[in-house]
Specification:
about 150 residues, 5 strands, globular
């Protein structure tokens, strides 16, 4: 784990914030090489699947010309939703590092179940709450702005 990658994810989340997207940023790293840095683009692309994690998987896969992201670590500002957790597991990443847990307590239960080893894929490890204050501030500010507009 290297928190400089979490800082990169937070910087990406700030870009999302400035574009009125939910401020989630994601970085995918393998052996110290950054393969992707992305942020949410659901609103701007009018597409429900344009979450930061999905975009990062696509970008990293394009970069290495392989959908298998074995040995990759993912740094994401907010704990993944079930869709993103499933995509990350299918991509075979090794570890997901999250800046902040999802406020929906059921999310962690569902995501943990998705990330368990099954007959086709190994377990994906997940570590939460690595940058709580920074990410929580950004999320609260975003939703406060949205309520006030």
């Amino acid at each position: 784990m290297n928190l400089k990658y979490m800082d990169m994810a937070i910087e990406a989340a700030k870009k999302a914030f400035l574009k009125n997207e939910v401020p989630v940023g994601c970085v995918i790293v393998r052996d110290g090489e950054v393969l992707a840095v992305t942020y949410n683009q659901k609103e701007s692309k009018n597409c429900v699947t344009k979450h930061a994690e999905i975009l990062a998987v696509e970008k990293a896969s394009d970069r290495i010309h392989n959908w298998r992201l074995d040995g990759c670590d993912v740094y994401v500002t907010l704990e993944p939703c079930p869709m993103c957790a499933s995509a990350l597991k299918q991509a075979r990443v090794s570890h997901i590092y999250c800046g902040l847990s999802n406020s929906d307590l059921n999310n962690f239960k569902i995501v943990s179940e998705i990330l368990k080893q099954d007959k086709n894929n190994k377990e994906v490890l997940i570590t939460n709450d690595l940058a709580v204050e920074k990410v929580d501030f950004l999320m609260k500010k975003f939703f406060q702005n949205r309520r006030n507009s």
